[in-house]
Amino acid sequence: MAYSPNGKLLVTGGEDGKVKVWNTQSGFCFVTFTEHTAAVSAVTFAPKGNGSVVFTAALDGTVRAYDLIRYRNFRTMTAPNMAQFSSVTTDPAGEIVCM
Q1: Which distant-in-sequence residues (6+ apart) come within 8 Å of 22 by Cβ?
Q2: Domain limits at 73?
Q3: Which residues does the chain have with pLDDT short of 70?
Q4: Inside any domain, residue 96
Q5: Cα–Cα nearest to 61, from 89, 37, 94, 32
């Protein structure tokens, strides 16, 4: 799980491959992404943008970027060889993703 930079959102990743975004004030999940096909092992918010971009890593060998304004998966990254990712982070500018 990870909190957005402004603390208003919380993102969680589950063993079912689902990524859920929660409003920390109301406690309600307002969007669920289902693109991963295996357990989500790491989640993080991009450091800029007030929590509008989430990166996730999963055991299906993908790292995905989600737009929380349009509610869509806008980028999927994979390794040249099959890998199961267990972590994900970004540089302070949010431009480089490391897995």
Answers
A1: 9, 10, 11, 12, 28, 29, 30
A2: 2-90
A3: 99
A4: no
A5: 37
